[in-house]
Amino acid sequence: MKPLIKYFKKFIWLFVIAILFLGIETISDLMQPLLLSKLVDEAISTMDMNLVRYYGLLMLLATAIGLIGALMRNWISTYVSYLFAKELRETLFEKLLSLSITQVEEIDRGSLVTRLTSDINFVQQFVNGTMRILMKAPLLAIGSFFMVLKLDSRFLKVYLVMVPIIFCITFIQIRLGFPLYSKIQKSVDQINQKTMEFLGGITAVRAFDRFDYEQETFIELSDDLRDVNTKTLRIMAIFSPIIMLIINMSIVYVIYLGKDWVFSGEIGAGQIIAFTNYMTQFFFAMSMISRVFNIFVRAKSSAERINEIFDMKADVQLGEILEKNIALKSSLRFEKVSFQYGNGRPTLSNLNFNITEGESIGILGATGAGKTTLIQLMNRILLPTKGEIYIGDTPIKDIQKKSLSDLMGYVPQKTVLFTGSILENLEWGKRGLSIDNYKNALNEASALDFVEAMPHKLNTKLGKNGVNVSGGQKQRLSIARALVHEPKILLLDHSTSAVDVITERYIKDQLKKRKNMTLLLIAQKASSVRDLDRIMILENGQITAFDTHQQLLSSSEIYKDLYEAEMGKEKPYASTI
């Protein structure tokens, strides 16, 4: 839990104040049995009503002081723990945003959700429990020891036998509990992951009628969680009764011997009563330690999982160069660029090419050729394993993220729209523009007509991921969003695959009117890119051809076969392009 110490340090003074109030509360609790023994032995035994009132008032005063201490301690601990969790959750989310796509995808989404929610909640409970219970338990246990010693030294032998046994039992509980609670967290992760997987693929589940299979899998995971929870609770439930049995045996032993001490006048009955109360307080302290331990074990497991995210070093480092400090152009240059995911085979190998400012480029290639990876290298979602990428004369890795985002527009292969109005989705591109600016972007993306036909026009609410618009409409809205801030470089990853030929041609014609904008368009069909300035052919992560449409017809057999198959001049080519 070391990386979390800085958060504890931030609230150290509130923590100290809470401990002070907790100390006041504990002292008040420890004074009650002592005052009770005085009341019995000095007041009730002599029927001195003045002493009865005196000690009674002292007990009420101690109770009132303890109540104030408890209320203040509870208020501060609750405030600090919730503020601690808030800042930790925000920092963890910020860390996730700084990681590259490949790093995020290495972690199960269900696990990410668990870490942002229940894991942080467990850490929060531990912080709260530390200030409310954990610090009180040792104070109460040590205090009860010295108070018993103050009553009569003969009680010390009982403590010296009982305390080591109880501590050994608590140590065994800690050793057994940690791995069990870790298993519970892993089982929760699996259920979260399965639930998210099911909800994300519910259409496919329905189409293939796999509800029975999904239910059986979920029930199996649920049974695993039940079994590990049951096993853990059964094991943990053993320790508290054992500790209680040892303490009760100690009380019985003292009462058995104490009757002779009382009859002989060596000690008073009030001291026996006080000893019994202190033993009960000691048991209460050990029970609190046991409860906090259960929270600690879960919090430790959760903290380790949270720290796994904090310990990840972001692949994509933010550059320091601002756009205003350099002459950023819309030209792109790749020099000996290679990329691979993890330890797998290279996705792209030794790419070298130049794209001039204002040029329109089409990218074709078979599934898995590396087209999307190439686009993601251009906007620094990924960083190359080898080589260097330049925008103008500036290495892309040195450009500040905000400047790079202002420079580029990007429409990913998987269209993403957010819950909210169409206008709110367009504002992801740039906020604060006039309605005419947003309409112009919609017009260029051939989306204005269907948006204007909607009852609420730009204020029409979209469902999750644009569930209430068609695939082609989602793509056009995404293109409009990318055009809103007038990028110098526009990256389209299969962004017109769901629109008809006429609409696709209209969109490309509109984009060509932006004379200084560099366009890169990934497509599956040669007809989608033949009217662009140049066309790049990717095969197995390498560029096999990069030229104009006319030149490729004579120099690239793959491109020629694909184009002629689309035009119906011969049998369809068997390529997967």
TrEMBL record:
<dbReference type="InterPro" id="IPR039421">
    <property type="entry name" value="Type_1_exporter"/>
</dbReference>
<keyword id="KW-0813">Transport</keyword>
<feature type="domain" description="ABC transporter">
    <location>
        <begin position="332"/>
        <end position="565"/>
    </location>
</feature>
<feature type="transmembrane region" description="Helical">
    <location>
        <begin position="12"/>
        <end position="31"/>
    </location>
</feature>
<dbReference type="GO" id="GO:0016887">
    <property type="term" value="F:ATP hydrolysis activity"/>
</dbReference>
<dbReference type="GO" id="GO:0005886">
    <property type="term" value="C:plasma membrane"/>
</dbReference>
<dbReference type="InterPro" id="IPR036640">
    <property type="entry name" value="ABC1_TM_sf"/>
</dbReference>
<dbReference type="Pfam" id="PF00005">
    <property type="entry name" value="ABC_tran"/>
</dbReference>
<dbReference type="InterPro" id="IPR003439">
    <property type="entry name" value="ABC_transporter-like_ATP-bd"/>
</dbReference>
<feature type="transmembrane region" description="Helical">
    <location>
        <begin position="235"/>
        <end position="258"/>
    </location>
</feature>
<dbReference type="InterPro" id="IPR027417">
    <property type="entry name" value="P-loop_NTPase"/>
</dbReference>
<dbReference type="InterPro" id="IPR017871">
    <property type="entry name" value="ABC_transporter-like_CS"/>
</dbReference>
<keyword id="KW-0812">Transmembrane</keyword>
<keyword id="KW-1003">Cell membrane</keyword>
<feature type="transmembrane region" description="Helical">
    <location>
        <begin position="51"/>
        <end position="72"/>
    </location>
</feature>
<feature type="transmembrane region" description="Helical">
    <location>
        <begin position="278"/>
        <end position="297"/>
    </location>
</feature>
<dbReference type="Pfam" id="PF00664">
    <property type="entry name" value="ABC_membrane"/>
</dbReference>
<feature type="transmembrane region" description="Helical">
    <location>
        <begin position="133"/>
        <end position="151"/>
    </location>
</feature>
<keyword id="KW-0547">Nucleotide-binding</keyword>
<feature type="domain" description="ABC transmembrane type-1">
    <location>
        <begin position="16"/>
        <end position="298"/>
    </location>
</feature>
<feature type="transmembrane region" description="Helical">
    <location>
        <begin position="157"/>
        <end position="178"/>
    </location>
</feature>
<keyword id="KW-0067">ATP-binding</keyword>
<keyword id="KW-0472">Membrane</keyword>
<dbReference type="GO" id="GO:0015421">
    <property type="term" value="F:ABC-type oligopeptide transporter activity"/>
</dbReference>
<dbReference type="InterPro" id="IPR011527">
    <property type="entry name" value="ABC1_TM_dom"/>
</dbReference>
<dbReference type="InterPro" id="IPR003593">
    <property type="entry name" value="AAA+_ATPase"/>
</dbReference>
<keyword id="KW-1133">Transmembrane helix</keyword>
<dbReference type="GO" id="GO:0005524">
    <property type="term" value="F:ATP binding"/>
</dbReference>
<protein>
    <submittedName>
        <fullName>ATP-binding cassette, subfamily B</fullName>
    </submittedName>
</protein>
